Amino acid sequence: MTSDMCRVTRTKHGRPVHHWRRDLVELAALFTAVAVADGVANLIGHGPDGPALLVISAVVLAATAGFHTWWARHHGHAPPAEDTSARSAAEVRSAGPAQDPDASAPDTAGASVLWRMRTTVRDEPGSLAALCTALAGRRVDILSLQTHPLAEGTVDEFLLRAPAALTATELTRTVSLAGGASTWTERADAHDLVDAPTRVLALAARTALDTAELPLALRQLLGRCTIRSLPATPFGGGRGPEPVPAEGVLEDTVMRLRAPEGGVLTVERPYLPFTPAEFARARALVELDSRLGPRIPGGHDVLTLPEGADITVRRVDTGDLTAAGAMHERCSQRTLGLRYHGPAGDTDRYLNHLLSPRFGRTLAAQTASGRIVGLGHLLWDGDETEVALLVEDAWQRRGIGAELLGRLVTMAVEAGCESVYAVTQASNTGMVAAMRGLGLPLDYQIEEGTLVVTARLDTAAVAARASHEGRAERLGEAARRD
Description:
The chain contains 17 helices and 18 strands. It is α+β, with helices and mostly antiparallel strands.
């Protein structure tokens, strides 16, 4: 710091700053040089070859002075050796616009990537500064920083913009050498540029509008994690999960919260322990959902089928259990068997789970009289997402199933899901055709007559919406919303 301050005072308005101390030093040096020259001249002049040596010395000095003058004229634009070693290119360039932007700042034109990084540092003064200095040395820009105090140490969460050539391994090594421990890195995207308070408020607003948003909001709040909702009463009867206290339980990489409907909500994240701050945020979001109670957004779309009949598509929940049960009673055993992969006994238990917004989203297709003729489910299954369809026999092969599936996939894309899968039977050609009609990459797995078709969504969110709009046009959609 001292050398930098001295260097700053060496110039003023682009010209050297002279001091009287420097003048005294120069005069003393001049007098010393004259005294030394006089002594040498007296010593040489009184010798036998003194005059000749003096003439030769004068010629050599004149030649040296002439060479120095020539060299200074041809290389006078070079910066002083002192500045060359002490200043960077950014410090010596002119204050005005650069003539060649690429030459003055070559790194700004290079590609960069976004990283999310979390590391633990010692809880002592200067530890964070040392880490930031190390990142700056690798030309890494810190876009945002969150701190999570722990009993021992502090967890710092960064959003970084780094040169594309800097690998995750190199980034981790740099942080480790600067004192960071238990470092975790993950590629980020533009959505992570939103600051933490804004993101939390947006997630709270989404949860307040729709009960089904709670698992998605938790996943976006906590990053990559697996969320499982265990009902208080299992489908097949028996004992439910162990109850948790009202304040929840935090165990390293697992947190367990009391679900709004009375069950247990388990959130698990591999390798990366949850901090008390994250636990508090998740608990507050679940408490908000519990206070608001079950709810789904209103609104509906009216579709005109090719034969002229109008069908309404809307979100439904457990309040529509009676109408959904009546549709099941009108379905044939074959249709129910293809949907539930066997005899569909105990329908009430199935429907109560399927229609609950706590476990996913359900769309219904209903006639003008209000009778439900088709159901489409988007179900949260841990870190995966399942889609399922059921259309009443008399309304099959009219495009209702494809319309419901397209809307469910659009919801999955908006929720940030990477894929959706459907479990059916190999003989269910209608479901297979609907999945193929999405126009997305599909994976097929067949085991003992059970077919699992997985559609990958991470490659083409736009393609899913475009496919949905294409199907709507073929059905002659006349949209009308509340």
